[in-house]
Amino acid sequence: MAYLRQWKEEADRQYDAIVKALLDLEGEQPSTAIEVFDLYCRPRTSPMVILQRLNKDHVKNTPTEWRERIADYGVGMTQLQRAERMVAFMDDPPALESELRNPGHANWKPLDYPDTLLLEIDSGLMVREVQESVAKSMRDPPSGKNTTMQLLMGEGKSSVILPIVAAALADGSRIVRIFVSKPQSKQTQQMLESQLGGLVNRRLYHLPFSRATRVGPAEAEALALICIECMTSGGILLVQPEHILSFQLMGVETAITGKMDVSRPLLQLKDFMDRKARDIVDESDEKFSVKFELVYTVGTQQSIEHSPDRWICIHHVLGIVREAIAEVEKSYPDSVDLHPGRPGCFPRLRILRDDAKDKLTSLVSRQLSQEGSPGLPMATQPRKVQSAVLEYITKSSLSQAEIEAVEKSILWSPLTKNTLLLFRGLLASQILAFVFCQKRWKVDYGLDPTRNPNTQLAVPYRAKDSPSARSEFSHPEIIIMLTSLSYYYGGMTDEDLLTTFSHLLRSDQADMEYQVWVADSDHLPHAFGQLSGINLDDREQCTEQVFPCFRYAKGAIDYFLAHVVFPKELKEFPHKLSASGWDIGEEKSQPTTGFSGTNDARAFLPLTISQLDDEEQQHTNAQVLEYLLQDGTLMTLMPKQKTPGRSDAEVLLEMVTHLQPPTRVILDVGSGVHENA
C-alpha cells in the first residue's frame, strides 16, 4: 500500500505541476475582471486532455520540453496503474509475480513511441520486454525485407504487439494494412477499436471487396480517396486476404473485358498500394499458405470434359474401394479408421498410414487393369496389355517405352484415352489417396444447404461443422469424389429421394436400374422389391417405409448424382484468373512483416518471405512441450469400440464420465467426434 501511495502522490505532483505551468499561476493572482474572465474561459484541463498532446493529432505541435514533461507524467500514470494491479493481485501469486518481473519501459523510450505509452495508460497494461523486442523487429526487420517471426501463443501478439506496431508505422507517409482471416476479423476489429480508439485516437478503415461488388468509375475513384485519407490521417486499414486478392483480380478482369474506365483506376490504386502499403500479417502461416487461393472464372460456362463418363468411372472406382477396404483392414487393422455402417452403404473410411494406402491403391489398380470399367473393356485384352495398363495408371514417372506400350496399343482410342488418363490421375497422381488420407468429412469438406447461391456440391470447411461461406473446390476429380462421399456418409434427404425416383420413372430401363438400388437397400420390404410397387403420390408411405431404405444406398446416390446433381452443377470455364497467399507476400517498396505462434510452416513460406529466428524466441517450441508434459497433464487412450454401431461420441463420453478427477470441459481439438456438435 505504501508503494501505491508513493506513486499516487508522484502522479498528483506531476499533474499539478503541469496544470500550474499551463495556467501560468506561479504566485500571481488575477487582479482585474478581464483576467478573471480569461482564467475561467481557458480550456478545461484533465489528465486525458493533457495526455492527448502526445497522440498523432497534437504531438507535432507540442514543444519538445512539454512532450518530455507529459511523457514523464504518462510514465508515472503507468506505474500508478501497475501499483494498483499489484495490490489487486495480493491473493494471486502468479499474477503478482508477473507484475513484479515487468517494471516497464526497460528496452524502449516512451518519448520515442508515445502511442505505445498512451495505449498502456488506456488499456491498463505494461508492455513486456519480449513484446517490445518482437515489435521492434516488426517495425524495422533486421534484413529490411519481408519477414515472419514466432511468438508463443498467449504472449499478446494480437492484443498488444499488433496495435503498437500499427500505430508506430502509421506516420502519414504510408498506409498500414493489417491482414486477418474472416473468423478473426470481428474480434480483431473490436480489439483494435478498444486499443487505438481512445487516447491514441487512430481511425480504423475497412476495404470489403469481392467479385459481387459492383465497381464503376465513381466507385473506383472513391476507393482511391479512402485509401489516401487512411494514409494521410494515420489510420489503420483492416483487411481480409480475400478482399485484397479479389481487388487485385478485379483490376485484371476488367482490363480483359475492355472496361478500361474501371480497370485503369483500379490498377493505379494497386500500384499505389505496392508503393505505399506497409503490411502486417496476423497468423501469417495461414495467410501465406499456397492452399489459400482465390479464382476468378472467365468466359462462358460449359460442361466439364469427358462428362458424364468422368463421374461414372469415379463411381465405379469408389465401388471397388467399397469392396476392397475389408481386405485392407484385415491386413493393416491399425492403419485404417473404418465404420462399416448400414447394409449397402459406403463405409465411412479414413486411411491413416502409407501401408494401407499402398495396399488399397494396389487392389484398385489391379482390378481396373484386369476387369476395366464402363467404357474401358479390359477383360478381353491380352495379358501384356493388362500389365502395361497397370504400370501406366500406377507409376508416377514412366519411361518412353512404358508410355508407348499403352498409347500405341490397340486399346488406345479416342473413346478410351480420357478414361485411362483419368485412372492415371486418380492412382499415379494419388488423388484417390489424397481424398481418403487428407480429407475428413464435416471437418475439411461437406455439404452446405444454407449457402447462397445454393449448391449441391461439396464445399470446403473451415473447421468441424463450419462450411466456408464462399470457397469452392476447383479440381473436378476432387469435387466429384468429395461430393459423392458427402452423400454416402450423410445420406439423401426425402426431397433428394423424391427427385431421384421421379427421374428414374421417366428414364429408360428404369426397372433394371432399380434392381441396382434394391441390392444396396437397407432391409427393403418385399412389397417394394419392384419399381411398380412404389406410389410416389403416397408421400406418407414413401417417407416412412421406402425412402429410409435407400437413404444411404450407394446405387441410388450414384444415380442421383450422375443424373441430377453433376449435369446441372459441375461446370467449368475456359479461363481462370488466380491469386494466392503468395501474392500477399510479394516484394513491395515497404517490407511485409508477420507473426504466428508456430514456425513449422517455414518450409512452405513464399520465396519472398524469410523466417526470423530471434535468439530470444528459440525456446518457444520447447516451452510448448513443457506445458504439455508438466505435472497435472494426464493422457488417457480412448478405448476401441467393442459394440458395432456405437459412435465415437458415445465411446468418448462414456470414457470421460468415468475419469478421475471429474472432467469439466471437453475440447475436441482434433475433431475426433464426427457427430453434430
Automatic annotation (TrEMBL):
Stored Pfam families = DUF3638, DUF3645
The protein's superkingdom reads: Eukaryota
Task: Please give the biological process terms from Gene Ontology that the record holds.
Answer: proteolysis
List each copy of the DUF3645 domain by range. Answer: 448-483
Report the InterPro entries cross-referenced here: DUF3638 (IPR022099), DUF3645 (IPR022105), OTU_Deubiquitinase (IPR051346)
The record's keywords, sorted A to Z, are:
Hydrolase, Protease, Thiol protease, Ubl conjugation pathway
So what EC number does this one have?
A: 3.4.19.12
Residues forming the DUF3638 domain are: 105-328
* Reactions mediated catalytically: Thiol-dependent hydrolysis of ester, thioester, amide, peptide and isopeptide bonds formed by the C-terminal Gly of ubiquitin (a 76-residue protein attached to proteins as an intracellular targeting signal)
Q: Which GO terms of the molecular function aspect are on file?
A: cysteine-type deubiquitinase activity
Q: Name it.
A: ubiquitinyl hydrolase 1
Task: Please give the organism.
Answer: Colletotrichum sidae
